[in-house]
Design brief:
Strand content: 15-25%
Number of domains: 2
Strand order of the largest sheet: 7-8-9-10
CATH architecture of the largest domain: 2-Layer Sandwich
Structural class: alpha/beta
Largest sheet: 4 strands, antiparallel
Number of helices: 7
Amino acid sequence: MRKFLVLIVILVFVFPLQAQIPFNWNTVNWSMLGRLMQQMSKSQLSESDVVYVVPGEKIFHLEGCEKLGNSKTGMSVKHAREVRGYLPCSKCILSKGITFYEKSSSTIQEDMEKQRKNYVDEWTQILSKKMKKVILDGDVLIGMNSEQVIASRGRPHEINKTTTKFGINEQWVMYAFHDSGLWDLKGKEYGYIYLENGRVTSWQSR
């Protein structure tokens, strides 16, 4: 992290001087640079810290993340996680070991149990008895659709898609760390879930 901050200082201040490039201090966005350096130096995000999302994604990022485009919306970490249900970016947050203020494990467990029960209640006339039990137990079943997987295991952290002439294959990278939302030990068993045209074909443990 310190190396990254040093690199920013070199690129912004030292390099122009060494290269004898005229440097206009008025062009520096001090506010943005300050926020970027402050966030990049954090080891934990509080619920009031500002993160950013882009249209069509369920992922939130730190300012300066390479995955952010020009169209972005800022919101608090609390709003992104607990109201919108968004997940942290693997590039700018998880890979740097940044953690979050934590809900208790019992609260996470209660939230997931409530989500599973609500889904089963809503689709009780359609779901088979076996599928109801699988979802309520937080398990995965071959042939499940994507909505049923989310109801049982929560949203994936990342989705890798491959498009072929036969359709779309997806690898869902699920959470496996407590500080990222692991609510039970099955998070390791269902580390990667594979879908073909929206249906589960297999899964892989971490």
